[in-house]
Specification:
There is one protein chain. The protein is mainly alpha-helical and 185 residues long. The protein folds into two domains: 44 residues, Homeodomain-like (Arc Repressor Mutant, subunit A); 136 residues, Orthogonal Bundle (Tetracycline Repressor, domain 2), CATH 1.10.357. Helix 4 packs antiparallel against helix 5 and helix 6 packs across helix 7. The termini are far apart.
Length: 185
């Protein structure tokens, strides 16, 4: 049983990585895995449940990145900067997330919803770190959920939407310098 589920997961992961969410059907997964759709549905309720499994995998990896960097013995501003730069480099180089982003741009719909879900989970992880930093007296009081949202959106906008060539490390340093004057004590 475990081998069958693993085969389905490995095949589906490869297909989602190759074709994205919109172009990967349960029929294709079944055919490529050498199983019936009924077998897939015995493990996963639907395509959304399957893709959420992979999204959860990605979020766990991102969470590990955030937690590892947050524990470093460096100033908070350097840790936040490193967390976000590392997360966005991870996203930029992760085939699953890249294809999800391409599908979201082309088709919107479910792919867009999944990408937004991932972004929300990243924001929540940043919020939890800001809340911890506030409890430790490292940042000013304020709406920390909104701050996490703003920080993430600034990074996304500069690193992915800015139309000029940029040095990512220099850009993230400038963003942190800006945030320090208003957020970090």
């Amino acid at each position: 049983m475990k081998n069958t589920k693993d085969k389905i997961l490995n095949t589906a992961r490869d297909l989602f990585n190759e074709y994205g969410y919109s172009k990967t059907s349960m029929d294709l997964i079944a055919r490529e895995a050498g199983v019936t759709k009924k077998t897939i549905y015995s493990y996963f309720k639907d395509k959304e449940t399957l893709i959420n499994y992979f999204l959860s995998e990605q979020m766990n990896q991102i969470r590990d990145i955030i937690n590892g960097i947050y524990k470093e013995d460096k100033p908070l501003s350097e840790r936040i900067n490193k967390m976000l730069l590392t997360i966005f480099e991870y996203r930029e180089n992760n085939k699953f997330i890249v294809n999800l982003g391409k599908s979201a741009k082309l088709w919107g719909g479910k792919s867009r919803d999944l990408l937004l879900k991932l972004n929300k989970e990243i924001e929540n992880e940043i919020y939890l770190k800001l809340e911890d930093a506030f409890q430790k007296g490292l940042i000013k009081d304020g709406n920390l959920k909104m701050m996490a949202f703003i920080i993430c959106r600034i990074y996304v906008s500069v690193l992915f939407e800015w139309e000029e060539d940029i040095d990512k490390e220099k850009a993230t340093k400038e963003i942190i310098d800006f945030l320090e004057s208003g957020l970090i004590k």
